[in-house]
Amino acid sequence: MRYRLGVDVGGTFTDVLLIDEDSGESFRAKTPSTPSDQSVGVLTGIEKVCAAAGTTVEEVGQVLHGTTVATNAILEGKGATVGLVTTAGFRQVLQIARSFVPGGLAGWIIWPKPEPLAALENTVEAIERIGADGSIVTPLDEDDLRGKLRTLGDQGIEALAVALINSYVWSGHEDRIAAIAAEELPGIPVSISSQVLPELREYERTITTVANAYVQPQVARYLENMSGRLSRKLYILRSDGGLASAPAAADNPVSMLLSGPAGGVSGAVWAATRAGYPDLLTFDMGGTSTDVALVEAGLPRIGRETQVGDLKVRSASVDVRTVGAGGGSIAHVPELTKALRVGPQSAGADPGPAAYGKGGTEPTVTDANVVLGYLPSELAGGEIALDREAARAAVARVQEGVGLASVEAAAAGIIDIVNENMLGALRLVSVQQGYDPRDFALVAFGGAGPLHANALGKLTGAWPVIIPPSPGVLCAYGDATTGLRDEAARTYIRRFSELTDDEVRGLYAELAEQAIATLEAEGVPRADQTLTYQADLRYHGQGFEITVSVDLENFSLSTLGEAFDVEHQRLFSFLLTRNEHELVSARAAATGPRPHVTPTDLADGGEDPADAVRTTTTIYVEGATTEATVYDRAKLRAGNVVPGPAIVTEMDSTTLVLPGHAATVHPTGSLLIRPVAEEA
């Protein structure tokens, strides 16, 4: 079986990429997502791309899938009814939560506190207690627990979470409760905190375990359905950018809450590093939302928290920030303020923007791009024909609401506002983290990203703006070219004066063996695995930690402390030099090799892109109409320079090059957009 298949499910489109591992040739398909049952859109896309490649599904060796099933279950509140077992005295751990309220001034007055994922009436207390050193303070009362579990079964719970105090030090009581639950609640999936998150802090450990249980039944059903229909090995992209087997993902679905965005970051790193830019900002604009991330030296920043809606859990994920700004984001003019707003509401895939002709009437970002002349007459390789008159009629409602002189001016206003919204997200991962965006390239992808990329380059000062090959399906490419990954962690609170270099090396050696064993079980030889190490550090007395990378080959506690100081200075602009450093948690991650896919490079074609010219069209840009040249990206060759204003079309996306800018075609196929002065 010579083919690998990457699948990414978005809010509007499902992207499928089929790769011939021998030749490196790829085939793409884009089909509308089916929110009621994502597998329908996935299987339709797989059949479509196999037909385009002249092969069959049976020739596909592996399917690598970025999915939003777990994410949507959280956002839509459609997860399982969860029962929770806590240590006696901690029944209201989810209700107490953390004393933090999002929002600005007076947010505590107007913010509606979300309901916990496990209701208080479905929470029971186990009579037990483990000390902070792992000793048994109070033995587990099994008879009492059995009665309480039967009560939860009578109340109709669909999943069970177990989170006991200090179980990250010793998991014996949680293991026993899981065994008892299997007897008393047969068929009910059980999540225990010592496996989901073996780290300190009872609230974070509990909410993460409950979230795992909340999405587990739905994810398990989906993966079982997909595996059954595909009858081949299915892998799921994790939030941290690695792959997990379908059974592993079903057991730990909280690790895939940001599965979709992580695939895009992985694909962007591949494209940018091939073009010679290891430092980059990623900008993934789809139909519903925009995801952004920062990559330094070819390595995405991995955060220790994952946030979906109001839910924040402790789970490793690529540090992606999301805003409700996509091609389907709806523009509206509130009656009270008469100020134009865009998003976060989205027309999604059904009915979609007015231009799709599927019954949508609300003005969207896609409709604005149609009115401005930036989009061709068809999208997704002819899958969707655009209705320009419907788009104008929808945007005219904004024109009337704001009182602008023309429909084009209203459309330009929609684009300006959505661009500012996305700029805010890019600043969150750069400026707010102590990075200057001008030191990075900007990689734009997703179905709508290349249309807005040049404008975001101007706003951020990040050059060049890189448009990878097949930007609309880059997330699927990231899925298809990612290796297996697993990590092991342990809370190990010690001041540096209480540690030795050898002791820390030994700790990491134990953790590495755990991670390596997981990948070996999946058929990845030890020699092919790459190990990375991290430590959560703080100054003694602080209530939070900072994660830093650990170089185990040249390890010493002094260099580790220096690395922490550098990061603390970058984030907060001060150091606590009188406070001793303290280790809180240690982690080791094992990563399998990325699949070998033969890259394809473009033949040299000189600077003149005349062979790729399709036509000219009238667009509205910078407050006036002008003529723009339309190019067929498939006919561009290495070295071609496309001067703006120009539109570059391809099956899965459209790129806009603004006046005063030019796009140079890199031999790898990426378009590198820069201001003309810099290009010269």
UniProtKB/TrEMBL annotation:
Residues 503-664 form the Acetophenone carboxylase-like C-terminal domain. Residues 586-609 are annotated as: Disordered. This is Hydantoinase/oxoprolinase family protein. InterPro entries: ACX-like_C, ATPase_NBD, Hydant_A_N, Hydantoinase_A, Oxoprolinase-like. It holds the Pfam family Hydant_A_N. Residues 205-485 form the Hydantoinase A/oxoprolinase domain. Residues 4-184 form the Hydantoinase/oxoprolinase N-terminal domain.
